[in-house]
Amino acid sequence: MSNTSDLFPDQVIPVPIPGTTDLNSFYDNTSRSVPQAPSPEIRAYWSGSPTPIRFTFLPLGVANPLNAQVYQAAPPAGLLQTTARALWKSPIFDLRPDLKASGSYQPEARPIMRGADFGRGARLILRSSGLTQIPVGFKVYSVEFGSTNNPRQMFAMNARQDITSHFFDPWPAQQGGPPQAPGLQNFGTGASLLGWEPAANPIRFWSVAVIFELTQGNPPLDLVCQGEVL
């Protein structure tokens, strides 16, 4: 067998390394010189159950979780005093479960795996429904909590934020009608869909609390919230 070209006699034709050809050598890849075929990533998510929101009238007991300072307005509180308060709070999420060897607290937080992007991309979505009767003094706030290494020591990442205008349209005349197409579930104009993304690109342990407050009138009775992390 000649190792030269008939068209170019002076040129040597490349020949394979002596030995048998192993078609499975790509998958053996002992030296790791050939990139391995990517394995499918299991994307963890969390889906909570629909939770009825129940208001508690003030004054609240000292040990009542609703009485925590982080849920209250910073002074000055304003002219209208809160008469009732309710709370929806997500579980604590571990957005970096790939760091499982760095601590012993993982069972206390729900892992949300985004390993290919180091936790980025996860977001909390909160759907509410049943808010058919909106009191005049109804307000909605949110607070995010986080920790870099310990879910037992979660810190407020911000003062409570007023998200009332994102939660519902306070002017019923401006509310658009719900979808009427066949197959679409009709939740009425009191439904909303809100989303949060974790800070710090992202912080490891993270949770969100939504505070509902009333300054006058009766609290809504049929408000239901359901959260998901996708």
Question: How would you explain this protein's 3D organization?
Answer:
- The chain has 230 residues and is mainly beta.
- It has one domain.
- Helix content is 3%, strand content 25%.
- The protein contains two helices and 13 strands, in the order H-E-E-E-E-E-E-E-E-E-E-H-E-E-E.
- The strands form two sheets. Strands 3, 4, 5, 6, 8, 9, 10 and 12 form an eight-stranded mixed sheet that branches.
- A hairpin with a 7-residue loop joins strand 8 and strand 9.
- Residues 170-176 and 178-188 have low confidence and may be disordered.
- Summing up helix and strand content along with how strands pair, one would put the structural category as mainly beta
Assembly context of the chains: single chain
Q: What is the count of DSSP helices, taking H or I runs of 4+ residues?
A: 2
Number of E strands: 13
